[in-house]
């Protein structure tokens, strides 16, 4: 008797879940617990830092070990009598929102491990010590920490496959489809968290390059384009090197600083995007030029190429 395809996938879900729970156990009960114990003696690293590295891993571990894995095991033992997992996954889905926090914190956690490994040799030694154990399978702490980040996309793939292989009249069809929809929403939620985090990080870097001018630093701004540009001076028919940052709400017209201490640029002019007009200039002497006119003033600018000019105009 051949094992039906959907059962194979359900079994794969169970097996990967067992492996995943032991990985979470390693992160929470071994790394986190032992680093915390050392931190409390005050010799390696502040307790706060250990908490920041591991974020909410304890809640994630407990949820999977004490709830989801046992439920899944019960289902699979009972499969021949009652072939379904959709309902259990529906119970799981809302809790996966806990991952948003962990995923958002991940890059910072990895940076903290690196920074404190350099600052505190005992901290580095303890991590190296745990990494040598058989249970770590020669992988680093950072590698193990990546696992929860990859778990939700894995559920999504397995469940998609499961739904695809279900016979049309399967009693699990309705539940499994609903469960997939829910997991899909959560996956989108955690991807959005990552995208938002990356946007803010990039924005912060731009603000630092601009010398953190108070009235410019606003977390809701979105950088659309930046790059060097030549400013044409009609008075003496010459050009000078400038730099533009275009945000969703403003254009910053900057001068590159010669001595780069702190900021790279000085903001010369800030133009509101609202009411701004842009058009190409057919200037024989200065090719690829365009005119930007806003409430504040009008600029004649020259790009390095036709493509670059079109990209700015767009």
TrEMBL record:
GO CC annotation, single: cytoplasm
SUPFAM superfamilies: DBL homology domain (DH-domain), PH domain-like
GO biological process, any: filopodium assembly
Keywords on record: Cytoplasm, Cytoskeleton, Metal-binding, Phosphoprotein, Repeat, Zinc, Zinc-finger
Domain of life from the UniProt record: Eukaryota
Record-annotated DH domain positions: 5-193
PANTHER family: FACIOGENITAL DYSPLASIA PROTEIN, FYVE, RHOGEF AND PH DOMAIN-CONTAINING PROTEIN 2
Protein name: FGD2 protein
Source species of the chain: Certhia brachydactyla
Classification of source organism: Eukaryota, Metazoa, Chordata, Craniata, Vertebrata
């Amino acid at each position: 008797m051949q094992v039906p395809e959907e059962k194979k996938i359900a079994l794969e879900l169970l097996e990967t879940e067992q492996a995943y729970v032991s990985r979470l156990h390693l992160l929470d009960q071994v790394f986190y617990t032992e680093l915390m114990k050392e931190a409390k003696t005050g010799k390696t690293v502040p307790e706060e830092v250990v908490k920041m590295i591991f974020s909410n891993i304890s809640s994630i571990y407990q949820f999977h070990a004490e709830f989801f894995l046992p439920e899944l095991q019960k289902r699979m033992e009972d499969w021949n009598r009652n072939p379904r997992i959709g309902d259990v996954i529906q119970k799981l889905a809302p809790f996966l929102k806990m991952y948003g926090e962990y995923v958002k914190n991940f890059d910072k956690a990895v940076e903290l491990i690196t920074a404190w490994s350099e600052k505190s040799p005992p901290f580095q030694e303890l991590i190296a010590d745990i990494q040598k154990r058989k249970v770590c399978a020669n992988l680093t702490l950072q590698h193990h920490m990546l696992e929860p980040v990859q778990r939700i996309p894995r559920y999504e793939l397995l469940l998609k496959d499961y739904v695809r292989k279900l016979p049309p009249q399967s009693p699990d069809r309705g539940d499994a489809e609903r469960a997939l929809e829910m997991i899909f929403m959560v996956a989108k939620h955690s991807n959005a968290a990552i995208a938002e985090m990356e946007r803010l990080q990039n924005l912060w870097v731009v603000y630092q390059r601009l010398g953190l001018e108070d009235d410019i630093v606003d977390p809701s701004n979105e950088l659309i384009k930046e790059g060097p540009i030549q400013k044409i001076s009609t008075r003496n028919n010459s050009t000078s090197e400038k730099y533009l940052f275009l945000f969703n709400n403003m254009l910053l017209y900057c001068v590159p600083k010669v001595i780069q201490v702190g900021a790279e640029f000085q903001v010369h002019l800030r133009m509101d995007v609202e009411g701004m007009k842009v058009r190409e200039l057919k200037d024989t002497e200065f090719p690829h030029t365009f005119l930007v006119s806003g409430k504040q003033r009008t600029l004649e600018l020259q790009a390095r190429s036709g493509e670059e000019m079109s990209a700015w105009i767009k």
